[in-house]
Amino acid sequence: MADAEVSLSPALRPLHLSPSHSAPPPPPPPASSSSPTTFSCPSSPSSASSSSSSSSSSSCSESSSDCPVHHHHHHHHHHPRPQLHLPPPPHSEQPSSPSASPRSSSPSGSIGSTGSLGSSASEGIGSSGVSSGGGDARGPSPPLDVISEDAMEMDLGIDQVIDPEVALKACQEVLLQVKLQNREVPEQQQVDNKRQQEDQQQQQHFTDSMEGSGPQWHVSPDTSSIKEEDEEEDEEEGEKRDSPPSARPESSSLLSASSSSSKQSWLLRLFESKLFDVSMAISYLYKSKEPGVQAYIGNRLFSFPDSEVDFYLPQLLNMYVHMDTEVGDAIRPYLIHRCRGGITFSLLTAWLLGAYSSDMHISTQRHSRGTKLRKLILSDELKPSAPPPDARGAVSASVFDGPSSSSSSPRRCHRRHNSSNTDSASSFSAAGGPSPDSPAPGEGEVFVSPSRRTHQRSKSDATTASSGPGSGLRRTGSNPKVEAVHEEPDRLRPQRELVKSLLCIGKRLATLPTKEQKTQRLISELSLLNHKLPARVWLPTAERQHHVCRVPHTQAVVLNSKDKAPYIIYVEVLECESFETSPVPVRIPETRIHSARSAENLDCGGTAANANANCGSVMMSEHRAGSFSTVPNYDNDDEAWATDDIGQLQVEVETHTSSSDNISQFSVDSITSLESKEPVFIAAGDIRRRLSENLAHTPTTFRRDPEDPSAVALKEPWEEKVRRIREGSPYGHLLNWRLLSVIVKCGDDLRQELLAYQVLRQLQSIWQQERVPLWIKPYKILVMSSDSGMIEPVLNAVSLHQVRKQSQLSLLDYFLQEHGSFTTEAFLTAQRNFVQSCAGYSLICYLLQVKDRHNGNILLDSEGHIIHIDFGFILSSSPRNLGFETSAFKLTSEFVDVMGGLDGDMFIYYKMLMLQGLIAARKHMEKVLQMVEIMQQGSHLPCFHGSSTIRGLKERFHMSLTEEQLQVLVEQLVDGSMRSITTKLYDSFQYVTNGIM
Amino acid sequence: MSQVEKKAGLLRRSSSSKKPLKEKVVLMYDEIFAKEDPAKNNSRFWDELFLMKVNLEYLESKLESVDGEEVQRIQDNINSLFHHCVQALGEEHQIKVVNALQTLCALFRGVHQKNKSASGFDIINMLMGFDKAEQRMKDLMERLDSLLCGDGSESLKSLCLKLLLCLVTVTDNISQNTILEYVMINSIFEAILQILSEVSSRGQHGYDTVVLLALLVNYRKYESVNPYIVKLSIVDDEPTLDGMGMVVHHALTEYNRQYKDKEEENQGGFFSTLTSMVGSMFIADADEKLSVQTNEAILLALYEAVHLNRNFITVLAQSHPEMDIPTTPTTPTPTTPTSPLGTTPPSLDMMNNPELPLDPNLQTSNLLITFLKYASIVMQDTKDEHRLNSARLCLIILTCIAEDQYADAFLHDDNMNFRVNLHRMPMRHRKKAVDKNIPSRPLVCAVLDLMVEFIVTHMMKDFPMDLYLRCVQIIHKLLCYQKKCRIRLHYTWRELWSALINLLKFLLSNETTLLAKHNIFHLALLVVNLFNMFITYGDTFLPTSNSYDELYYEIVRMHQVFDNLYCMVLRVSTNTGQWKEAASKVTHALVNVRAIVNHFNPKIESYAAVNHISQLSEEQVLEVVRSNYDTLTLKLQDGLDQFERYSEQPKEAAFFKELVRSISLNVRKNVSLNTLSQDVLLKEFSTIS
Question: From which residue to which does any coiled coil extend (chain B) (predicted)?
Fold first, then answer.
């Protein structure tokens, strides 16, 4: 058992924020088999505690938030009390690892996990132990270590059963408590403190784990980290236990008996089952009127991996905003917990809360839960006042030189560390090891990087000062400004500022009349923005943790839109271990790029420098000294830069280096001919031929069009763009350099887009699961308010409109031009991609009733896929209600031509794919429906206009039809769409009104 | 401005009841110029002196009138005065500080005017005394430094800068100003940087600061290590560099705006409609009025920044909103370049406002664009010496820019497109260019346009050979970059080609007159080699295959010019004479052009004959060209894509020396006594005290 678990966890960690869930079927520890009780367990703290003794309801209540964590322990219920004591043993093993603190960067310290594990796993008892164990252990025992985890897992062997009755009770108590909690945070804190002392009282422990975390952390850095980790580990445990639901009929029966509702027992079993995923949790949260169930699920959320829950964040928040207090109360602890956990989650939540609250009447809105929570988050009171992050910061700071390290989120790191002791040991020993215990002030983390930075700066100043007599003083004088900006104690501030300024730019651009002016303005606005970078800001659409270091402002471009001014920007980022705690990269001046380019010419440059009369060698050495000290990290480049800087490579050198380009032999020839006095002859015809060949060989680019500035930018292959920008960037030489892009939209409500994205993602995963090769590309949406947000651009894709306007070819001819003739593999691949994506989007368009399908809203990527964008009109809404676009989806004869005509195999394949896709989607209809339905709650979005939205959506899945009937349906749909003149009509309508071809 | 002030001051002095007060100062001055130690009888003498309003005229004239022997006699007292001035700078009482600054100014000026011929050492001795000079100057510079960097009154800072400017420009040749040696040792460079880095102080003192810096950098530039050069070259603080760029940008914009205003003034009224027709008649007149005095000091500062500091290059491309739109009549009395050091700081609203204003009519601009526009104005008329110097400096700056890789990168950046409205000289044979429909293009196009414009408009008897050489070299450098980086610029190369051919034509037809003064073969060689660049490397940077055909078309069309040129250089190179070698280089360079002419001409003729066409159309010629490439062999020439790097020394040293001298004179003239004795200042402080 233990082994199995161990292996599992390591694997999981890297993958998910919360490890436990990601791993679908964790080998259930035999002991844990007790799971049936789970239902009660989830209520966890209470259950656990109560199980042992219904001792103190009050404690339970407080702990409610924590509960989820503890569930696991319940399983092991046998010795509820003993478990508390159990933890110690593991600790003893763990003490060796001082590293604990460093990991803590994110609340989920590995240590904690170990601790929790120990408790929970060790004897099932853990339930209470989890939190309590963690707390207790910390005080007396040295920080737990990774090692301990293993040990604990071993302990799992012991069976534990939770008394379902008690659990249920606890559940309800928890609910009550939650309510109380919400009102009296301070109280809780006090309680927490008490708890620490009263480890023995399990219930209190529970509470600690959740709410208490704040205060506790202050007490001692180590402990805090431990706690967090505990929770996470608990979650893992919980999952494992969940997996073997059927194992324990008795418990379920007990439960049912107690609740005297068979339905509930079923529910319980379901909840315990491994099939129970976030989707179901959300669904039950939405449907169930039973406070107990809601509370349970609220707790249960803790046990899911963060990433999975994140997907449903819009649903969760919409429920939080628009549904009854019970639901809100059930969700709240989880939200609070996560907000404490990270800036990213905090901001996402705040933005979404704002957006979803906007539909409420103003009077209610002001006092609504959503608004309040939003305020709370933005007030930045939910910071993890934990020292761990600080310690972590120190670590990462020292480790900073190796930025390429792949681990992205702090949590992941934790996991990893847990899994392999050696791993963690080595990485941490680097810096955090030596002084992990040093307690740092709560805000420390924020300052870490700034101080570092300024330190460096001032150092450079000092050196320059020393270089010249009496210099440097003034410059340090101006530095304080810099510091002031960066020492902004508000951790959410930089990011919010960034978003704000991006949105402001968008608003201002909208007032300019022409695209050209917009683009120019955009570029100059962004260049101002550049002055403030790098900073502790990130692009929320990105996968990995990073800091934004530069915006290559000249690359930004305004997108096509009639009256708004959406624009795409490219953003250079430096990946880092943790966005929140890694030090912000040091600014490198723009001109520093010379270094990278001319590094090869070092020595030549040096000699050239001397030749350059007026500065003289004195200056050069000065110069070097200066640049060296400025950015100690990049010694090599600095040197290169310094020499090059003054040296101004002489031409000869340059031509030599450029000789590597073989396109023109002439440049080479001209040099070789220098040595040999033999005259070299060339044919004029060759020159002319090379010219036309070179021109032909350059990839098909689009012409610059002042009316459509984005066409060129989007057509450029992404890799090429990355290479080009990297070459021109002073940061380009860093290994962890990445290029991202994002579309900033102002004045558009992206909530529908977000919903569409979710549905697309859902369908995509359904099709993957069912192995239907449909291809769709959901692109990420960030809602920042009800009228602004960001969109992840689809790379290497241009709109059909742009294709047509620029190439003046039919779609098929364009395919032939881009991919080769009919029989080439490239063409066939592209064609297959086209068909698969067409089928995917045809279904999407049908199911979601996506309208406004003109060619400007359909992209074609470089591999032949089509991608639909702009889901502004879906479900019940359609543009201007002109009655166009009655067809199910857009299928023009051009499309059919690319598929090889009506009788072609590919067209048949297309229809077959649609059928398969529909069948697969139908099978999982609930998942889709439920997402949409929840979002309808309290929403005024046009897509929910009318009362039949959900019913209509449901009907389009045609649950009642046989597969044969479905096939007929597909035929009909395809037929109808093809014959539909309305599609064509709509296109010409668009052309007339918007100039879109 | 200053006139008015002066009058006001005089009025006040003569009519007000302050007369006795003035007398007291004068009396005290007299005491200083007596042999006795003035403090002997009155221990509070110095304290009181600095409470008095300074009478600059009197003090200066007094100093001037002192003759050789007297100097010895009163030297102690003057030393003492200097000493106490420096000490007074540290006073809390701001009136004293102001008076001390002004007194110092008078001291420096007076002593120098007196000793025009005397060596620097005498002056130092007279002011401070040899033994104490070092300490005195150290104190002075430290005091000034702390005044400039402190939180004190802006007027006070302004006065400090005036004093420094005054000190720097007391001699015609800055390098002979020995006192500056102490300014080198006790650097105020950091104070300058700080002023430039802060938005508010930059707005008020930016201009003076930049001018001061430009002058200091030129102190003994070639003879010794000038710490200001060293320091300026390594500044990498972006706000500071930006600030400097802003100051330059603003000054140049102001100039452009004034020029435009004048131009419009001249064309205003109902004349505007007539100018296109009758315009040429008025041009001579208009030209006179249009000459706004150029701003050499600022240009010099720009040059030093571009030349010395690589990081400054980025500032050139920093976008600002365009400011030369007269819709912002911010200050009624904008500083005219003729009195750039006047008391009113330029209206720097834009500079003070970090946010870009939101006006759809505002074009985005940057320093480089502004500079190009400025250059286009300055280059129009190179007759007067100042403008010639300015034009030369502009071309030197462009040379530096064209050599910088980073600058080249953004010049050619396809994503940075701008409309640059260059000023074009109205000429008889062409209409004034319509400003509007200039397409938005990469900046390098504007540079090339400017070069073409210059080439076309300066073929005159008084041939500016030096400027032409620079001009052609700039084009060459840009082409080298394009070739190296394979940038295919969509530029109408044809205009350049025909401009160059016309230049050759001009050289040919004025051979005798020009040869008397210039080596025209060198220029001819450079021009022919530009063609060779296109002929041999055209495949690497021409935008379309058609453009290569057009190149041949143009050469064949104008073959007469090349034929004549060849005859001429052949003739000169076969004779013995000073041009023999230079001419023979051109003959070699012409190899390929002649090959082209000799290859295609017969083909075209026979084509015409065969098809019985007397006059071939362009398309037909191009067709002949296209079909006959393969039988043409060209010779590869060496070093076409290599060029000599710009270096200031030794070639340009004399130019810069002269330039700095003229700037010094100008600055000195403008740091008038009146700007120093501002009533404003006194008023400001009288309320405090």
Answer: none
Question: Peptide bond preceding B650: is omega within 30 degrees of 0, i.e. cis?
Answer: yes
Work out the average pLDDT over B610-632: 87
Looking at residue A538, its pLDDT comes to 83
Rounded Cα distance between A637 and A653, Å, is 18
Nearest to A21 by CA among A210, A340, A241, A268: A241
Asked if omega into B38 is within 30° of 0 (cis), the reply is no
Of B320, B548, B645, the CB nearest to A688: B548
- Decide: A589 and A457 in contact? Cβ < 8 Å: no
SS (H, E, C) B67-84: CHHHHHHHHHHHHHHHHH
> Is any Cβ of chain B less than 8 angstroms from the Cβ of A527?
yes
Q: Where do the DSSP E strands lie in A126-275?
A: none
A699 contacts chain B (CB < 8 A): no
Which tokens is A614 given?
Answer: 């007026």
pTM of the model: 0.65
One-letter amino acid for residue A941 of the chain: L
Under DSSP, is residue A346 helix (H, G, I), strand (E, B) or coil? helix
Return the sign of the alpha-carbon dihedral for residues A727, A731, A737, A743. Answer: negative
Residue A802: CB atoms within 10 A of its CB come to: 25
DSSP B547-585: HHHHHHHHHHHTHHHHHHHHHHHHHHHHS-STTHHHHHH
Confidence tier at A31 by pLDDT (50, 70, 90): very low
Greater confidence (A914 vs A153) lies with: A914
Partner-chain contact A626 B193, CB within 8 Å: no
Of chain A, the percentage scoring pLDDT greater than 70 comes to: 49
Identity of the residue numbered A560? N
Task: Check if A629 contacts B (Cβ < 8 Å).
Answer: no
Pick A589's closest partner by Cβ from B236, B363, B537: B236
Q: Does B409 touch chain A (CB under 8 A)?
A: yes
Per DSSP, what are the bridge partners of residue A739?
A572
- Alpha helix stretches (DSSP H) within A924-980: 925-936, 949-955, 963-979
Q: Is B149 helix (H, G, I), strand (E, B) or coil?
A: helix
pLDDT in tens, A669-721: 344 444 445 678 888 888 888 888 877 766 556 666 667 777 777 878 888 88
The more confidently predicted of residues A154 and B101 is: B101
Q: Which residue of B has its CA nearest to A712?
A: B415
* Cβ separation B634–A523 shorter than 8 A: no
A590 vs A72: CA distance, rounded Å: 54
Cα B259 from Cα B381, distance rounded (Å): 13
Q: B239-297 pLDDT, tens per residue? A: 888 889 989 998 888 888 888 888 777 665 444 444 444 444 444 444 444 455 668 89
Reduced to 3 states, what is the DSSP secondary structure of residue A739?
strand
Per-residue pLDDT at A645: 36
CB contact under 8 A, B643 and A688: no
Report residue A313 as tokens.
Answer: 């964040």
With tokens 């920080």, the residue in question is A143
Which pLDDT score, from 0 to 100, does residue A857 have? 86
Which chain B residues contact residue A670 at CB under 8 A? Answer: 536, 636-641
Mean pLDDT of A396-409: 36
* Spatial separation of the C-alpha atoms in residues A237 and B448, rounded to whole Å: 72
Which tokens go with B85?
A: 């001035």
pLDDT of A211-222, one tens digit each?
Answer: 433 333 333 334
Question: What pLDDT does residue A650 have?
Answer: 35
Q: E-assigned strands of A839-907?
A: 858-861, 866-868
> Scanning every residue of chain A, which has its alpha carbon at the shortest distance from the alpha carbon of B189?
A471
CB atoms within 10 A of CB A152: 35
